[in-house]
Amino acid sequence: MQRRGSARRRIRPAQQTHARQLPARVFPRGPGQCGTAPAWTHGRKGNASMSEQATTPPCIIVVFGARGDLTKRLVMPALYNLRRSGALGDDFAIVGMDHGDISERAWRTNMGQSMTQLLSSRDAEFQTDEFDTATWDWLRERMHYLRGDFTDQGAYRSLGGVLDKLHKRYGTQGNVLFYLATAARFFEPVLLNLGEAGLVKQREGEGWRRVIVEKPFGHDLPSAQHLNATVAKVLHEDQVFRIDHFLGKETVQNILAFRFANGLFEPVWNRDRIDHVQITAAETIGVEGRGRFYDPTGCLRDMVPNHLFQLLAMIAMEPPAAFTTEAMHRRRAEVIEAVRPIKPEDVVRGQYASGAVNRNAVPGYREEDTVPDDSDTETYVAMKLQVDTWRWAGVPFYLRTGKRLRERTTEIAIRFKPAPLAPFRSTEVGGYGPDWLVLHIQPDEGISLQFDVKRPGAQVALAPVRMDFRYRDWFPKEYTVGYERLLQDCMNGEAGLFQDAAMVEGAWRIVQPILDAWKQPPSDFPNYAAGSAGPSAADALLAMNGGHAWRALTPGRKPPPRRPPEARAGVAAPIKKTTKKTAKKAGKATPKRAAAPSAKSTQGAAGSPGKVAKTSVTKRATKKVAKAAAKAVSNAAAGKSAAKKSASKTAVRIPRR
Questions:
Q1: DSSP 8-state code for residue 376
Q2: Locations of Low complexity compositional bias (predicted)?
């Protein structure tokens, strides 16, 4: 253990030195930033934690939809984490606005209860070792509630009066961040009313005004274009932040550093070396009482034009000349514009039926509360995309996302092409496994690389192994929900991790033909059980495109199989030497009814395949046979000629309990 720790101490300083010496053309110095990190990293280096980052400027956050699910699950936990890390100063306050007729005290209590409930949920993004009551007390005292109808102009006049009082009370210098955490149908009336009330007009010396708009930004291409036009009437483009919380996750931000700060991977990041790419965002939860919101939206609108396309853009984008907001937006938009129009046969939709998730019985989608009994809304989407650029021509990108799946995981898996020639002539057919590079977004953030090595022994046999990088192993433990960095960026006016109007409309332009094709109701809904990996049609989609297959949905990171699946069929298992002690232990563990070999399968002890017939043996007989088998295997390993004969008469496969 001591040597391992000292090795790490030797490696880390070199890594930090390398990060500091990155050329300015790669990570240009931004205003107020240290080192050569880009603006979106906030000058974070080495083992710097969130608490070491610069504090946010004074401001008031106004949350429209203060009693909604998004506010409870993500916005409030993010503000709690920012305060606990020291990023929020005393010149900060929150105003929650909603139509619910409750008191300010009741709203505060409700938010506190929601956060403690999240901590008991296995699938919640808000996690912490211990809930800090002092941090929550500080935040709660700065939470103010205003009842108001989002379509009523009088509510916005009242909001203006509240803001004037709070600016004086907390010294927030007139800075206001408006957060639209409402249903999408309220985006336009809220924006127009903010404009008419003069609440988003920026005057010199009176602070800044910015607006965060949640996804989905529109429900199709025409509505997205209309909403962008509304935004342009009320706000300057640098005032609006179209948020996607996936871009706030460390592993997503690390994609750029991983690709462009390391000379090792960029040379193979192209069609010559990459076979295909899989992007997965799987959830175990259902609609969780949000059927009224989810049913008119569906999985395609909710996840694909924003979350999955953003991950696609980060993987496929060309290196920007400089890490400025404009350059980042332009490079990501180029990827979306290069996506080939999708054919209906390259898309699969699904809806979950009842089943079991984590051994708990769950209802089907149509059986969920607030969901119509005859709903045709999809809860699963899989698709094949082609990016028509010089770098990616001919490389398929497979995207899938869904609810009530087997495991909660978000990852980007890149499969490399096999070696062009198999020089190891003695290696069994199919012995070359695929090489994978996997970027784990959640829940276990990090990067894995799987490749083949020679298995120890006289014969040349290959086995897949894996190298793992986990954030938790190298950096201080931090709990985030993905919104902390994005909220800080909004307060600091940094838009590099947000979408602009061109990206939004480009994404809807890709999705629109699918929406048009899906106006015809499906005939097979529901078509996958809750707790499964999705509909069988999604597997067929990959099988018909080069014989590919989805990566298994697994909790966390399981080690790779000792042999690739294609190398297991018809190949003998390696001999494992059995001692008398282990044979005796195996005999004790054997049930009364054990399997005995047929005449044709008597070479099973040496690893040859054969049919095993079932027969009844006593414990004593089983022990005797196990000892004889162990002796035969030992003799075979020593090269004694009598081993085969002995094994053929006495070898038996001992079943495991």
A1: -
A2: 567-576, 627-641, 648-657
Q: Please state, in angstroms and as integers, the Cα–Cα distance from residue 92 to each residue in 108, 114, 132, 519, 537, following that order.
A: 16, 22, 19, 47, 51
Residues of CATH 3.40.50.720 domain(s) within the chain? 37-214
Superfamily of domain 251-478+500-568: Dihydrodipicolinate Reductase; domain 2 (3.30.360.10)
Measure the CA–CA gap between 209 and 177, rounded to whole angstroms: 6
Is 283 labeled as ligand-binding?
A: yes
Q: Before 216, cis peptide (omega within 30)?
A: yes
Could you tell me the pTM of the whole model?
Answer: 0.74
Strands 59-64 and 176-180: parallel
| Spatial separation of the C-alpha atoms in residues 513 and 339, rounded to whole Å | 13
Q: Which residue has the tokens 């020089």?
A: 423
- Residue 649 among known ligand-binding residues: no
Does the annotation mark 167 as catalytic? no
Do the annotations mark residue 403 as ligand-binding? yes
User: What is the DSSP pairing of strand 352-353 with strand 528-529?
Assistant: parallel
What stretch(es) of the chain map to CATH 3.30.360.10? Answer: 251-478+500-568
Of 195-209, 407-421, 577-591, give the lowest mean pLDDT range: 577-591
Q: Which of 42, 144, 307, 440 is catalytic?
A: 307
Q: What are phi and psi of 202, to 5 degrees?
A: -95, 125
Q: Kindly report, residue by residue over 609-637, the tens digit of the pLDDT.
A: 343 333 343 445 545 545 555 555 455 44
Superfamily of domain 37-214: NAD(P)-binding Rossmann-like Domain (3.40.50.720)
Pairing verdict, β 396-402 and 380-386: antiparallel
Measured between alpha carbons, how far is 540 from 271 in angstroms, rounded to an integer? 24
